[in-house]
Structures are given as structure tokens and as C-alpha cells.
């Protein structure tokens, strides 16, 4: 169940349009599989016999991946702090964004703290430092999340890169200190094009601050989540936010990023 701190509970299921369904892996065509089987069989004939005794397996000792896998499991307590993208501005009702989609998909017990116009430094229309990310994280100290996601910062375009980097580091260090057993992840600016091109400096500053705090940074710009090709169908009419399809897509990309963090590194195991 998602709890909101921005004005009430989400609408009930009957008021929502069809949302995201679990993605399934696409199967290879039968012809391709047959060709692959022949090719693999041919390769095995050429390999030394000793290779049959070795295989690549997940590294069960990858503590970081194991902690993340536990933190993103169904039913986990999750805190999401963000801006208007977390609130859902641009969606069908203006209050249903990527966070609500991802929480429903994952079955998390989540607190969704989205305030439009805010960031690590920016206070939005409130003009009060009580509403930047640091202050809101400090006020959430009483909860006990297994996963903390801090989204955004594209509203921090009026501050210098050095100021933003320092505030990001301070904010994420505070989250780690308050919840030493939690997995903390920072999601960078994820605007559609052409707005995305203007957030490069912001993304770099947030990445540097996250790195200094020892927090994983998910870089939507480097990953080219929003391109000149797909942005038209994902952008809201204002060009600043996402529409329903865009938030659904963003939820899926963040979901994929979390799954990747929860996948153990592999190692070669030989008999």
C-alpha cells in the first residue's frame, strides 16, 4: 500500500486507467533457436574437454546485490522522496507518476513523498527549506525503510554545480546515517527531450555527490532513457513532465535498474 505525504491517499483502483503489467521476456523464434543449437553444438566439439568442468555461476557472496535483492522484494518498506515526477504532474489526474506505478508493480509498503518544484536545494513554491530533500528525509527518521529512493534534481538549475554536489552528498549521507541497514539509491534527472539536454550539468553534479556519499546513482541521461525518437509519445503537453505512458515507461526503466543492482556478479566455478 502506498502512503502519500503530498495530500492524501492515492485514488482507489476503480478510478485508475489500466496500469503497468509485469513484463515478460520475448522468446527467440524457433528457427533462430535451432540455428543457435547447431552453432553451440559445433563449438562444443572444438573446445577442450576440461571446459565441460567449468561454468559461470552467480556469486553468492556478492553482499551488495543480495542486500538490494532483499530491499526490493515484494512487501518491503520503501521511502521515495522526489519532485513533481514523483507526485505525477502531467499524468491523467496529476497525482499518479512513476512511483505509484512502481509501488503497485512491486507490491511495496511505500511512503511516497513527492513535492512539485523541489530538489536537493530548491524549495519549490513553498520558499521554505523545510521542503528540500534533506529536511524531508530528516523528518522521516521515525520510519524504517529497507529501500530509500531519492529522485530528481532537475529543479536545482539555479544553483552552482559545487553547491549542488555538496548538498547531494550531505542529503544522501544523512539518509545512510539514519537508516544504516537500508539500501539508498539516487535517480538523476529523467526529463524528455529536448529538456533533457539542459540537465547534463545537474546530472553530473548529482552523480558526483552520490559518489562522494557512497550511494548508487542511476543515470537516466547516460542510459538514454529519453531520446528525440521516443520523447514525443512520452512527454506531457507542457514538455516539462511525462504523460501516463511516460511515467509507466520511467517506472519500467527504474525497475530494470533496481533488478540489475540486485543481480549478483558472476564467477567461474570449476569442478
Q: What's the CATH H-level superfamily name of the largest domain?
A: SGNH hydrolase
Shape: globular
Low-pLDDT regions: 7-51
Strand content: 5-15%
Give a count of the beta strands, DSSP E runs of length 2 or more: 8
Quick tags:
single chain; two-stranded antiparallel ribbon; alpha/beta; Rossmann fold; 8 strands; 9 helices; 2 domains; 271 residues; six-stranded parallel β-sheet
Describe the structure.
The protein has 271 residues and is of the alpha/beta class. The chain folds into two domains: 2-11 and 61-267, SGNH hydrolase (Rossmann fold, 3-Layer(aba) Sandwich), CATH 3.40.50; 30-59, no CATH class. It has helices at 30-46, 63-71, 84-87, 98-106, 133-139, 161-178, 200-213, 231-234, 244-261, and strands at residues 2-4, 54-58, 77-82, 109-114, 147-151, 183-187, 216-218, 266-270. The strands form two sheets. A six-stranded parallel sheet has the order 1-4-3-5-6-7, sandwiched between helices. β6, α7 and β7 form a beta-alpha-beta unit. The chain is globular, with a radius of gyration of 21 Å. Residues 7-51 have low confidence and may be disordered.
